[in-house]
UniProtKB/TrEMBL annotation:
Domain FCP1 homology, chain residue ranges per copy: 1-132
Entries under Pfam families matching the protein: NIF
Name the record gives this protein: FCP1 homology domain-containing protein
Matches recorded under InterPro entries: Dullard_phosphatase, FCP1_dom, HAD-like_sf, HAD_sf, TIM50
CDD domains: HAD_FCP1-like
Single GO term (MF): phosphatase activity
Length: 147
C-alpha cells in the first residue's frame, strides 16, 4: 500500500512489483546510474519510487510529469537531454514508444505489466543492458532494435 496525498486528501493505493524488479534494479544499478523518468505526478510517483528503492540509494534522480512534454494527443513525451546532454550513454526503458519519441534511438521497448506473476520481461532485458556497457554509443546498438 502506498499513501498519496493530493490537495490535502490522503488516498491509499495498492501497488504490486513486477516480477524480478528488485533483482533487476540491483543488477542494473551496479552497471549504470539509474534514473526514474515518469509521466506520473510526483505526489504519486515519489512514494512508489521510495518503496522500490527501499533506502538503498540505487535510484539516483527522479523526473516527473512536469519534466515531460504534453503532446497534442494528450500523451507525454520525455526529452532525455534533461537526464544527460550526451545521449550516447543514455537509454530509456518504457512501455510507451511515445515516451521516447524525441529520442527514439535511445528507447528500449518493454511490454506493460499488470499482474502476470510469470512475467520475465525484466530478466530478458539484462543481456541487452549488459552489452550496452561496452559500446561507445548505445544508439548504434539500440538502433538495430533486434530485441
Amino acid at each position: 500500500m502506498v499513501e498519496v496525498v493530493l490537495g490535502g486528501r490522503s488516498t491509499l493505493y495498492t501497488v504490486y512489483k513486477r516480477p524480478f524488479v528488485d533483482y533487476f534494479l540491483r543488477k542494473v544499478s551496479s552497471w549504470y546510474t539509474v534514473v526514474i523518468f515518469t509521466a506520473s505526478m510526483q505526489e504519486y510517483a515519489d512514494p512508489v519510487i521510495d518503496w522500490l528503492d527501499a533506502g538503498r540509494g540505487i535510484l539516483s534522480r527522479r523526473f516527473f510529469r512536469e519534466s515531460c512534454t504534453l503532446l497534442p494527443n494528450g500523451t507525454y513525451a520525455k526529452d532525455l537531454s534533461i537526464v544527460d546532454q550526451d545521449l550516447s550513454r543514455v537509454c530509456m526503458i518504457d512501455n510507451s514508444p511515445v515516451s521516447y519519441s524525441f529520442d527514439q534511438a535511445n528507447g528500449i521497448p518493454i511490454e506493460g505489466w499488470y499482474s502476470d506473476p510469470s512475467d520475465e520481461a525484466l530478466l530478458d532485458l539484462l543481456p541487452v543492458l549488459d552489452s550496452l556497457r561496452f559500446t561507445s554509443d548505445v544508439r548504434h546498438v539500440l538502433g538495430l532494435k533486434a530485441f
